[in-house]
Amino acid sequence: MSLPTSTAPTPPKDSTTAPEALRHRSRLQRSRNRVRTTALFLLFFIGFVSVWHITTAGLDDGGLAPTPAATWDRLTEMLTDAFMLDGPNNVGIFYHLVASLQRVLLGFGLAALVAVPLGLLLGTSRVINDGLDPFIQVLRPVSPLAWLPLGLALLRDSQMTAIFVIFMAAIWPILISTIDGVRRVNPLFLDLAKSLETDTKTRIFKVLLPATLPAIVIGLRTALSTAWLVIVAAEMIVGGRGMGHFVWNEWNALNTPSIVVAIVIIGGVGFVLDRSIAQLQRLVPKA
Amino acid sequence: MPDMMTALSPTQLEREPVMKIEGITKGFNDRKKGFQPVVGTTDVDIHEGEFITIIGPSGCGKSTILKMIAGLESADEGTIRLAGRPIDAPSRELGIVFQQHVLLPWMSARQNVIFALETDPRTKRSKQELASLADEYLDLVNLSHAADRRPHQLSGGMQQRVGIARAFALEPQVMLLDEPLGALDALTRHELQLQLLDLCEKQKRTFIMVTHDVDEALLLSDRILVMGAGPSARIVHDISVPFSRPREVENLDQDPAYHELRHFLLNSLTGH
Fold first, then answer.
1. Which intervals carry biased composition (Polar residues) (chain A) (predicted)?
2. The CATH number of the domain where B25 resides is what?
3. Which value, in Å, is the radius of gyration of the alpha carbons in chain A?
4. How is domain A87-283 classified at the architecture level of CATH?
């Protein structure tokens, strides 16, 4: 797009044909590329399933290795029974998924509620930050699962403990990213706010927060994927409903095709979660 | 101090200066030698309606002086008084135009001007009042057609014009311009110099501008303060610019006095 730089307002009404032709050409190029990538994907997929079939089918291991055919059967079975509610211990995959999502979203949401304001504070105040930094640096590299026994001991509730573990997993990326974001805010924005004699509330909500938003969204995105990684492992231990519990249960029943299906579902849902939170980036202003 | 050509009108001399700079200094403390001044001024009185330019070689500390005047940095010695009161913090009475555009990128040009207006704690205006006032100031810099654009959709010159409109909108007692055209290409720069000239002749305000462009200084100012080279840079000349207003580039170019002054300024900047 050409912007009028002169003082005379001349909107580019009659956009010439040359850029239009160029745009048409690049559109054509893009759709051609799309056809190629789709073909390549199908090729890889067929190759992958073939190798999978060759290495697992006819293996004399008592049917432990999941074959593509067995996995496909299990997948259709699990999907038809997805909403089954047959007693407390026999529920469809949907309810496991919902249980996991619930824990992740609760723990992640609580972490965001704590980490964003704390990050804004620590990013603004060097003194408070330097005082708290040793805690952050030592606690951050600890696997969130290490908190699990402590959670069980103190909270005495497996559900709460799982949420607590997710909280501990999600808080660090948000906190670190927010602090970093505040530090990167153009210092002239703050000079401007000062010279306008704005009050603290305006300075935080109208200048600091919007300017830090890109970094916060990056932190939220990292935190949510970390939380989704951790929940499966946490649920293997705390039990109840949930994808992790489901996977562990199926392992105990030596039902490996179910585990493959669960892996695909976990991956797919993780992908959708990441994409949804990435939508927040649309709110983020262009610099 | 040579060349003290004071050309103030009688009415200006009678009135109290709007701003008094009383020998400000900024420096650092050396463990052995004690306080070492880096940049400073003598006493300078600035009268209402004056366009003052501080010019000096790069790195001499012109921008630091402007920051001290703006209240964004404190002076180690001396005081700056605005209408009698010492400046110790940034204030809406000092409208700043920064070297790079400081427009909030998540707001349109109009919203950026509105932001400056609505944060005024003294006057509460309705949404409509704010919008029409903002449009008025954008119109002043010929940007009505771009009011709804975000900063990234504006050219460098347009961004700077929005900044100028915002500073005007504050109706400050003194406008502070920190190399406002320094980051622009030569063509846009010239265009904006003419627009700024037009603006300050139409809207009689008090300006303090920092620049290293001699032609810009001569075109716009009533008075030029020339800084010497560092370390410990000070104002070495206080020159009145005698050309009558309204000014035209063509007329100036034919005036031998213009070339004489230009020559003198260039020489004092290069240290000859």
1. 1-18
2. 3.40.50.300
3. 26
4. Orthogonal Bundle (1.10)
Is B249 domain-assigned? yes
Number of domains in chain B: 1
* Residue B201: both structure tokens together: 């002749």
Residues B231 and A267: their CA atoms lie apart, in Å, by 63
Residue B100 resides in a domain: no
Q: Which residues contact A141 (CB under 8 A, 6 or more apart)?
A: none
Asked whether residue B153 is assigned to any structural domain, the reply reads no
The answer as to whether B118 is a domain residue is no
What 3-state DSSP class applies to B93?
Answer: coil
Cα B87 from Cα B72, distance rounded (Å): 10
Give the residue from chain A lying closest to B170, CA to CA: A196
Partnered with residue B13 across adjacent β-strands are none
Residue at token pair 């935080």: A204
Q: How far is B95 from chain A (nearest CA, A)?
A: 8
CB A263 within 8 A of CB A278: no
Question: Within its chain, how far is the Cα of B61 from the centroid?
Answer: 15
CB-side neighbour CA atoms (13 Å) of B16: 9
Mean pLDDT of B143-159: 93
Q: In this complex, which of B95, B100, B157 lies closest to A5 when CB atoms are compared?
A: B157
**CA angle A162–A236–A254, rounded 5-degree value:** 160
Mean pLDDT comparison of A19-23, B42-46, B245-249, highest-scoring range: B42-46
* Residue range B75-86: mean pLDDT, rounded: 89
- Among candidate residues B55, B70, B91, B262, the one with its CA nearest the CA of residue B179: B55
d(CA A238, CA A242): 10
